[in-house]
Amino acid sequence: MRKFLDLLSEKMGEAFAAAGYDAALGRVTVSNRPDLCEYQCNGAMAGAKQYKKAPIVIAGEVAEKLRGSEVFSEAAAAAPGFLNLKLSGEFLAQYVMEMRRHDKFGLDMPEKPEKIVIDYGGPNIAKPLHVGHLRSAVIGESIKRMLRYCGHEVIGDVHLGDWGLQMGLVIAELQERQPGLVYFDESYTGEYPAEAPFTISELEEIYPAASARSKEDAQFKAKAMENTYKIQNGVRGYRALWQHIKKVSVADLKRNYDDLNVEFDLWKGEADVQELIPDMVENMKKGGYAYLSDGALVVDVKEESDTKEIPPCMILKSDGAALYNTTDLATILDRMDKIGPDRIIYVTDKRQELYFQQVFRCARKTGLVTPDTELCWVGFGTVNGRDGKPFKTRDGGVMRLEFLVKDTVDEMYRKITENRDMPAEEAEKTAKIIALSALKYGDLSNQASKDYIFDMDRFTSFEGDTGPYILYTIVRIKSILAKYREQGGDPAKAALLKAEGGSEKALMMQLSQFNAMMEAACAEIAPNKVCAYIYDLANAFNHFYHETKILSEEDAGRKSSLIALLVLTRDVLETCIDLLGFAAPEKM
């Protein structure tokens, strides 16, 4: 289905051509002066030099060709050469009704869908998720849903940090606390216990204790490094403990991500590609890409066009140990072999820009990806407190993500029970749904690369540019449709007619922009465009609602048309919030 502005531009181009001018001059845009007109075309001014005519003359000739147009009810030339346009109500209603009939509201699917891997999440096992993990999860999940909706095959990978010194530290601390565990008896040949010798709560306390101790106790750190070596070289007991750490951690991570309505198709980590590293490194050496620099193995990634220094990409440290670079490159190799993606998107903190520039260049230079594979990085800003600094707890620590979610749920529960009489169980369920909208919309409505301030009062407000406001609008529509059914009406059979009021027409025009918005949001990987669109749509609906009698409308055909408009508005809004990763309750 054609995008609405493209359709208007085509009709305007025909008028330019009929007047003897280039049809390409007929590009139509939404008016920047809604007090004067609904749409505008500035092609007459663009064509003035080419045709050696005053813009107002060209505009007047084109406007004359639009007399009796089925698309534009008004087309007026205005100094110095604008074409001010108003839309035919019949044409607009017909287009909006076509949206309702089409799958995905008429959004065109790609001729050649892409296979895309999104790398988001990035948690380390043995550590709880904290507020810094919020954005990668929320933004990555929305990007995944948007690209799927736009017709692509998308695979989300959590990409766990499950390898390295942190594992050795945890096991070193366990050795101190429980030295008699069978895992530390290297002569033991039997089966190890199926249950881990620690709970998730104990594990989350063990890691920070071990990390702090390693900074003060050189002997303890050496023990941790030795343990890491044993894990990575397959010593049975240490490898079994590592599996316990991973299993307990992943179960807790899944619970936390479920609370955020975030799902991953793959739960792979750095450990999954360790066996690929030796051959990958050897191939880089044989290809003449990797060389020794101060004992470390590196690959030059600078280019002649660089305006700043780009350091080499380090593949192995001077002691032969792998780095994050190494495992990320091996992961690219693994994805190309097992999935063969057209595009890989990484969603991480924006401070990692140089790192990904190095990794992407290294992957291309060493042939880990095909020339047409796109490596894409989405860098996001930090979540800050009201002081403008990275969000902290009251005692200055990094806040756990589950506590932030709980605080938001508690605040929504307080607001719901303060103003409404609702059973406790229903209020709790509703509070969770609305809190998720507050968190996700509060994040996604910002451009990803920008830092933002986490403002609990603003994010949980039912007014303004917030998730709860969007949900309140949807619930209002659902309530009207439920009452219409009680009157014996069937919303599914309602037929849309020409708008009779200005706010009704404005709502239809806002709906007509869905396809263009969705296409741009996917092309630019920008969930904030979806947020901006539904905020404008919710505002347009609420303006229409306050001006229009709907259920009390006496004309049956007119009432049916209004209901049809409500159904489409609800469907578009619910589709969009699903793309953002949250849903609307039935009541609020």
Structure, explained:
The structure is a single chain. The protein is of the alpha/beta class. It folds into four domains: 4-87, Arginyl tRNA synthetase N-terminal domain (Gyrase A, domain 2, 2-Layer Sandwich), CATH 3.30.1360.70; 165-259, no CATH class; 271-380, Rossmann fold (3-Layer(aba) Sandwich); 401-580, Orthogonal Bundle (Isoleucyl-tRNA Synthetase, Domain 1), CATH 1.10.730. The chain contains 20 helices and 13 strands. Strand 5, helix 5 (134-149) and strand 6 form a beta-alpha-beta unit.
Short description:
By secondary structure, the chain is of the alpha/beta class. The protein is built from 20 helices and 13 strands. The protein folds into 4 domains: about 5-85, Gyrase A, domain 2 (2-Layer Sandwich); about 165-260, no CATH class; about 270-380, Rossmann fold (3-Layer(aba) Sandwich); about 400-580, Orthogonal Bundle (Isoleucyl-tRNA Synthetase, Domain 1), CATH 1.10.730.10.
Helical content, roughly? Answer: 40-55%
CATH class categorisation of the largest domain: Mainly Alpha
- What would you call the shape? globular
* Spatial ordering of strands, largest sheet: 1-2-4-3
Enumerate how many helices there are, as a single number: 20
Counted up, domains total: 4
Look at the structure and name the CATH superfamily of the largest domain. Isoleucyl-tRNA Synthetase, Domain 1
- CATH level 3 topology of the largest domain: Isoleucyl-tRNA Synthetase, Domain 1
Instruction: Compute the average pLDDT.
Output: 95
Rg calculated over all Cα atoms: 29 Å
Low-confidence stretches: none
Main β-sheet description: 4 strands, antiparallel
Quote the beta fraction.
5-15%
Secondary structure: number of strands:
13
Instruction: State the end-to-end distance.
Output: 35 Å
